Amino acid sequence: MSRMNIDGKGYKIDFDGRGSLKISGKLAAMPEEYEAIEDFFERVFDAIAEADTSELVLDVRDLTFLNSSGIKTICVSLVMEADDIEGLHMKIFCSASVTWQVETIPTFKDLMDNLKIIFE
User: Fold this and answer.
1) DSSP string, the chain
2) Which comes out higher in pLDDT, residue 2 or 48?
3) What is the mean pLDDT of the segment spanning 22-32?
4) Span of the secretion signal (predicted)?
């Protein structure tokens, strides 16, 4: 499995090829840009299936801003898709000092049973 990334305007998304996904910067993309991000997440799931990995780790500690379209994309195209994969567990590493994360990410628990949220 190989590394993949997206370098967007003000943000970066990296997948290490082993089950770790990191989103950093300020993600305030337009809806059409989110289509490319959704495609990227599909490729991440393909890579995870290929590697027979049982855990997906999402690190958003360095993601200082995420607009509502971004929240929807992460919920639908990442968390809900992960929930559909039998046996897959997900961890999200968050920053306790980033307001949108504190207010929004705990609600992701409603979308996936095998989800662990860790604030640092």
Assistant:
1) ---EEEE-SSEEEEE-SSSEEEEEEEE---HHHHHHHHHHHHHHHHHHHHHT--EEEEE-TTEEEE-HHHHHHHIIIIIHHHHTSTT-EEEEEE-TT-HHHHHHGGGGGGG-TTEEEEE-
2) 48
3) 93
4) none
Q: Alpha-carbon Rg of the chain, whole angstroms?
A: 13
Q: Which residue has the tokens 């705990």?
A: 106
The count of other CB atoms within 10 Å of the CB of residue 33 is: 18
The superfamily in CATH containing domain 4-119 is STAS domain (3.30.750.24)
How many Cα atoms are found within 13 Å in the side-chain-facing hemisphere of 94?
A: 22
| pLDDT at position 1 | 61
Tens of pLDDT, residue by residue over 29-78, are 988 899 999 999 999 999 999 988 999 999 999 999 999 999 999 999 99
Is the torsion defined by CA of 64, 55, 51, 71 positive or negative? negative
Tell me how far apart the alpha carbons of residues 89 and 103 are, in angstroms, rounded to a whole number: 22
- Give the number of residues written for the chain: 120
